[in-house]
Amino acid sequence: GQNIDQPTEMTATEGAIVQINCTYQTSGFNGLFWYQQHAGEAPTFLSYNVLDGLEEKGRFSSFLSRSKGYSYLLLKELQMKDSASYLCAVPNYGQNFVFGPGTRLSVLP
Amino acid sequence: ETGVTQTPRHLVMGMTNKKSLKCEQHLGHNAMYWYKQSAKKPLELMFVYSLEERVENNSVPSRFSPECPNSSHLFLHLHTLQPEDSALYLCASSQETFYGYTFGSGTRLTVV
User: Fold this and answer.
1) Phi/psi at A48 (nearest 5 deg)?
2) Could you tell me which residues come within 8 angstroms of residue A81 by beta carbon, excluding any fewer than 6 positions away?
3) Is the pLDDT of residue A98 over 90?
4) B98: helix, coil or strand?
């Protein structure tokens, strides 16, 4: 089966950098996804990593280490609108996903 | 507009009522899903339909009954729910794993 762990809550200041970690245990591996979910809204796709290393996309970057079962999402130049929950997810089998508990990020002025 | 449309956005129902949630996607995706999201809990997979056939049922109580009449539409029929069923119900669709899911905005369900 799959098991995913993330910190429950994080707080950071506007303009700062924050790193949200995700550890996972899977019986097979077919990539790792990060989603952003604002309160009361649908999760939206942020990134997909299937190979080790850092994928950069604007202010957001995602890192993966398959040997360590570890990923992180790096948010730079934080803005107030980045206050949201960040969900780590791995495919279970086929097209099913297992989601982590989500990290609720609060960005303070 | 996310490409996946869910109605209604909010629903309040009594424990003896029968209601249905609707999900529609016109992205050409071949799989559709129902997830339940409760406060402070991970997203829980309820049902998976691939090519209109149900391929996953995660031990969901029979008071939840899914229906997938075609590849673009998915329903969740609700009857005799309990207060603990109050949650955000999210529909999602996908084509290939590499592209992840496209989620609908969800239906906020309150059972009274």
Assistant:
1) -140, 125
2) none
3) no
4) helix
* B27 DSSP 8-state letter: S
Side-chain half-sphere exposure of B91, counting CA atoms within 13 A: 30
Q: Which residues contact B27 (CB under 8 A, 6 or more apart)?
A: B3, B4, B93, B95, B102
Query: From residue B60, how far is each of B34, B47, B64, B84, B88 by CA, in Å?
Result: 11, 8, 7, 13, 15
* Among the partner residues A41, A43, A96, nearest to B45 by beta-carbon distance: A96
Confidence of residue B41 (pLDDT cuts 50, 70, 90): confident
Closest Cα in chain A, distance from residue B85 (Å): 17
Residues forming beta bridges with residue A106, ordered by sequence position: A11
Q: Is B106 an 8 Å CB contact of chain A?
A: yes
- Tell me the CB-side half-sphere exposure of residue A103, using CA atoms within 13 A: 25
- Taken in order B100, B39, B60, B63, is the CA torsion positive or negative? negative
Q: What is the mean pLDDT of residues A85-95?
A: 82
Note the pLDDT of residue B14: 92
The whole-number average pLDDT for the span B22-40 is: 91
